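Per your request, structure below.
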């Protein structure tokens, strides 16, 4: 299968599946428990329909938006995700360069395999640094100082991962960092020798955001250990308020689902929130971000920038979210499968297709700017 045969999310997913060892494909594709929330994330967009206006004069369409002070050429961005060099040898750099080319924002994860500084050098566009709250307050302060020094524009604290989700596909394959594969998982790696050669010649596995504090190499620390031992489950609103004040710039909470929580985020000085259930990878049975969007926009849309992610696979999904008041929409698996399938050209093609779909959709809706999309464009069934 070739990149030229990819026309949508499902094509990229199929191509990634052919390239990746099954444990890695399932790490990306999978979610928590019965994966109900994961399925609902995309299905939620089908619970309403777009109502187009015609004869509006749509020669030129402006797709730009501004979130947390960052001007984006497109109303969607690459949400931070972990371990990208496992998916393609260029990892985060491929994503940073592709996002830069399309004038949009990208995130680097605390569990990224490229340093936030190196990613910063690969793009002149806005960069988000996604981090978790550690028991070691010194480490939290050090990470913020490092991000500031590197020129990161937006700090994004993920608040939906106070403990790890139950990813049963990973248990079955033995996917863990460092690898602790089951026999079945190991045989899946043997079936993809090209991936293995690429991976083992690409310079080894590192987590540069954490490697001063986490020793992955000698196997004394694992990612599951990182979640259970190093992250602080007592994290509270007061802790986060102190971090927001210390950062002194754009600060965003990722993983807000409740309107009252959204108000508290505004109260402590956040300039953005991402409504998200982490791609269904944490609390299965959680509502979809799209289903919660209107309630939260009504509560805080005039106080901070509301974004959402989860299940976005089509330009019309983006249009529906924007119509309900999202300022921009995050993409996860939508760019990860193209990354796995073909590296930077894959991510660029995915962004290009999404740009076309959003632009075409705007024209068919009779809208020439994002601001013209309103709840009036939608009807729920
Ligand atoms: C493989 C994978 C790794 C992820 N790693 C992180 C992470 O390190 N930090 C984080 O805040 N979110 C992480 N996420 C969640 C994404 O940022 C985003 O919220 C989610 O993927 C959106 O759902 P979607 O994949 O359906 O678009 C990850 C998601 C996936 C699929």
């Amino acid at each position: 299968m070739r990149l030229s045969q990819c026309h949508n999310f499902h094509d990229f997913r199929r191509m990634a599946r052919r390239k990746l060892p099954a444990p890695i494909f399932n790490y990306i594709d999978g979610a928590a428990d019965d994966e109900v929330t994961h399925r609902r994330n995309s299905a939620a967009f089908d619970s309403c329909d777009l109502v187009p206006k015609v004869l509006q004069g749509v020669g030129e369409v402006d797709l730009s938006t501004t979130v947390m002070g960052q001007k984006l050429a497109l109303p969607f961005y690459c949400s931070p995700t972990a371990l990208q060099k496992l998916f393609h040898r260029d990892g985060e750099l491929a994503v940073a360069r592709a996002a830069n080319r399309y004038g949009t924002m990208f995130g680097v994860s605390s569990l990224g395999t490229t340093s936030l500084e190196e990613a910063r050098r690969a793009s002149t566009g806005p960069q988000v640094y996604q981090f978790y709250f550690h028991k070691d307050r010194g480490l939290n302060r050090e990470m913020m100082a490092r991000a500031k020094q590197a020129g990161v524009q937006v700090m994004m604290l993920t608040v939906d991962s106070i403990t790890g989700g139950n990813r049963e596909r990973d248990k079955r394959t033995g996917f863990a960092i460092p690898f602790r594969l089951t026999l079945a998982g190991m045989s899946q790696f043997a079936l993809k020798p090209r991936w293995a050669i690429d991976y083992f010649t690409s310079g080894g596995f590192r987590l540069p955001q954490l490697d001063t504090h986490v020793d992955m190499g000698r196997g004394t620390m694992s990612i599951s250990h990182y979640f259970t031992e190093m992250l602080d489950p007592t994290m509270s609103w007061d802790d986060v308020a102190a971090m927001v004040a210390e950062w002194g710039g754009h600060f965003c909470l990722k993983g807000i689902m409740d309107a009252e929580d959204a108000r508290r985020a505004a109260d402590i000085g956040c300039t953005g929130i991402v409504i998200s259930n982490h791609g269904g990878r944490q609390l299965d049975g959680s509502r979809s971000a799209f289903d919660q969007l209107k309630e939260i926009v009504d509560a805080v849309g005039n106080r901070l920038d509301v974004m959402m992610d989860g299940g976005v696979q089509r330009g019309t999904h983006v249009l529906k979210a924007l119509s309900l008041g999202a300022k921009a929409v995050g993409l996860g698996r939508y760019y990860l499968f193209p990354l796995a399938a073909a590296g930077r050209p894959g991510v660029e093609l995915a962004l290009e297709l999404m740009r076309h779909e959003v632009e075409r959709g705007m024209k068919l809706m009779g809208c020439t700017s994002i601001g013209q999309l309103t709840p009036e464009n939608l009807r729920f069934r």
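The chain has a mean pLDDT of 94.

Regards,
D.
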